[in-house]
Amino acid sequence: MATLLWPDDKSVQGGLDIMSRRRRVISELANGKNLAVQLQDLLQNGLVGNGSGLAREIIHEILRSFTDCLFLLSSAESGEVCDNGGSKDSDLASKKRSADSDSKNRRGCYKRRRGSETWTELSRTTEDNYAWRKYGQKEILNAKFPRCYFRCTHKHDQGCKATKQVQRAEDDSEIYQITYIGVHTCKRNTRLSPQIITETDPWEELSGGSKPRTNIGHGNVHVHVHVSAEVKQEHLEDTLSDVTENSFPSLGSIFDQQVLADACQQLDYLDSVDMDAFMASCIALDGVGDYCEGLL
DNA sequence: GGGATTTGACCTAG
DNA sequence: CTAGGTCAAATCCC
Predict the structure, then answer these.
(1) Span CA (A204) to C1' (B5), Å
(2) pLDDT digits (tens, 9 = 90+) for A123-173
(3) Is the shortest CB-to-strand distance from A96 to strand B under 7 Å?
(4) Strand pairing partners for A136?
(5) How far is the C-alpha of A170 from the C-alpha of A36, rounded, in Å?
(6) In chain A, how long is the greatest CA-to-CA distance?
(7) Residue A292: how many CB atoms within 10 A of its CB?
(8) Which nucleotides of C are covered by protein (CB under 7 A)?
């Protein structure tokens, strides 16, 4: 599914026309469907050799495909183009050069970006398959832990406006609430192959320390409905409700939440999955793709 | 030396 | 007025 070429920043920010968007959605869905079929074949033949790793890669691509489709569809619905921050200088160097009056007066000039392209995940890891650069940390009122602010590493070289905020959950400090704001418009070459979720202490990483600074991820499934194996079912259901009811209101009816929940859970438990159930999940996801395609 | 992080200042939205 | 989001100089680290 690496076949989807993300447009450059301008084309996204300027808004894709309906036909382009439609073509991309169809392309993504077709790709997802093909991958689901590949996965089905793979599973029918048994996961011998490195089949398990391959299956995992295919799964991640399928999930990413649906994620991208949802983004395309949701932004088409709302008609919004998140051009926030457009008033900001995008060129750090020129900002420095223009110095003094101008740049200093503009410091802090920004628009808050919380809009329809915002969603929240609960996860035991702060990592995902993107490269993030931390740009701030704030103590939040009545919050036990500070909130950390990340922007895409490619903000300047590719104009990617994606940001995320990471905050430890109050009640369960093992869980991180990750709010993603904006869609990645950078090219996907920064993404790594999916990897296994690790048990490292992400907060230690956030707070500095000797670990690598670039948050290039482990397999924190990049789908709105990410579920790490340890997150409880109610978290999953909350997230699903949030996604379908708030982020994609008119898409909500497409998804049988339980079907998706089961599917996602099965995908995360690949190692110990019941193959029949897993196959059913793949078919369910494939069905979602068919349904979307039918709508277009 | 260059890229990433830290952190106080700055600014806006509510 | 204040909480929260961002900037950017200083600092860290490879």
Answers:
(1) 13
(2) 777 777 788 989 999 888 888 888 999 988 888 777 787 888 998 877 666
(3) no
(4) A149
(5) 38
(6) 67
(7) 20
(8) 2-9, 13-14
